[in-house]
Amino acid sequence: MATVTLTKLTKRYGTIGIVHGIDLDIADREFIALVGPSGCGKSTTLRMIAGLEEISAGSIEIGGRIVNDLPPRSRNISMVFQSYALYPHMTVRENLGFSLKIAGAAKEDMDRRVAEASAILGLDTLLDRRPSQLSGGQRQRVAMGRAIVRDPDVFLFDEPLSNLDAKLRTQMRTEIKKLHAKVQSTVIYVTHDQVEAMTLADRIVIMRDGHIEQVGTPDEVFRRPATRFVAGFIGSPPMNLHEATIDDGQMVFASGEKLPLPGQFKANVATGDKVVFGLRPDDIYPTGHGISSGGAADVHQIELPITVTEPLGNETLVFVEFNGTDWVSRMLNPRPLRPGERVAMSLDMSQAHLFATETGKTLRS
Amino acid sequence: MDENSSARLKRRLLGIIYRIGLFLAMLTICLPGLWIVLSSLRPTVEIMAKPPVWIPQEISFDAYVAMFSGIGKGGIPVIEYFRNSLIISVTSTVIAVAIGMAGGYAFARYRFRGKSSVFLGLMLTRTVPGIALSLPLFFLYVRLGIIDTHFGLILAYVALNVPFTIWLIDGFFRQVPKDLAEAAQIDGCTRWQAFWQVEFPLAGPGIASAAIFAFLTCWNEFALASQLTRSVSAKTLPVGLLDYTAEFTIDWRGMCALAVVMIIPALTLTYIVQKHLVGGLTSGAVKG
Questions:
Q1: Which of A15, A208, B177, B204 could serve as a FRET partner for A326 with CA atoms 20 to 30 Å apart?
Q2: What is the value of ipTM here, to two decimals?
Q3: DSSP three-state, residue B22
Q4: Domain presence at residue B59
């Protein structure tokens, strides 16, 4: 069990910077998700923590011990690879016990720990098979079993579910969560899937271009995104974002359409400021069909034409035209709507977000 | 006749044609080998007969008996030649594969300056015909005093084989996913252990096939060996074949018998190793 501390961690290939001096404190037994689009440096960061990639500057501490130049085997970590990386010439039993064999563990000890791990993951009946005889989900479980057997201080996961189909992914996600509850280790989990990050992690680290954009609980990054990028990245369907100019307590959009400035931002902007206005699909809905219908404090009414509807059964995603593009809105207790129809929409301005166009930072105080 | 049964008939017909074609191709490939075996068992008159005698009239093992009968009784020092061939081929194969493994691994796994030029350079050495080098090599070896020695020939064969083994083994290491060695390092291995525990067993069949290629090249090589060896102490079996040529005659039967003696170990070795050559061992390592 261990804390992990990254200080000014940097990775460069020649002159090209991949990770630009990131700082991060991870508490003991915490489940941290590194999330971001491909090329944001999240996998490189994980591989530096694992010791598979040399660091260019900064330091990594695991359990209070600086491990900058230690080889992977001396860091007491284990890692689950995206490709599973099972040893194809060994049976499941040998795969699970490999790290113990290398460490020179006694036969009884090895058997006991392999049995424990396989019991946790339900691998008992597969122990004598080879990886090629397993399904994707089973291979995934063996890869996790191999990580558990080592009883590491820190678990590293590198996009472990991205090779599985959607159904299996949801199932394995639950298993990973259960596993964390059982083994109580520190977990660092890399994914590009924000849903995985939201559902699994205690805290989420959102990365972009080698920088950390925001660190926070799933609730924080969803409700109080620090930057325009985070706002657009977290949440599905994504937040509606539109550039506007402030003019006397109103937001004026490129098309000339206007919306009142949300009350919570009035003190932080002045006429002439360029801003990005953001509203989640949950906070815009055909009047009477919203999550906060009736209870919302600052609701603005506007009539907009419908372009497309996507019925999902219990709800319908309604695309309405605003400022020359489509706005996604979530309609609960749906009623049939036709494209072209103009409907009264409610905009819950108390939930709105505002970012400075130039810096992309939130204007929330 | 409906569409299905005519399609079935067509498929069967194609199958038969395919088998006949295959049989003819195999016959063409195997016939010279068979001819050597037959020729070693029949008298010279029959070998030289025109038109050829396909079915031997009488079979005798005289050539084999004579071969081992010692000098003066039609024999040649076949045991010595065999020993020379074995020592030279095995040693140079072991060295070439060792260098090939190190080189192939480096090319497959590491990035370094001038990698592609070095690789290209290695491959270009293959474009020079060995025989063209025999005269310069001969002078060089005479000066160095390694003419007509095992060492000299081993050196030449290692140089001949290394580029090819590097190229082959590089390909096999590339097929072993990098993740596996990394996983092994996280599981507690040193780089060295990860190589021997994980990467080597997986590339094993490929390395074995590279070794067979190298061995057969040495075992069968004639051009260089005929220039660089002189005496019984260093001559290999292919060079030994020349012992059957006299000033005016060639003992075809004896030559064929020696050829059979040469082929048998090579064939046996290939047969033993071929079951290790099965591919697909890495399937299941990664997503697939």
A1: A208
A2: 0.84
A3: helix
A4: yes
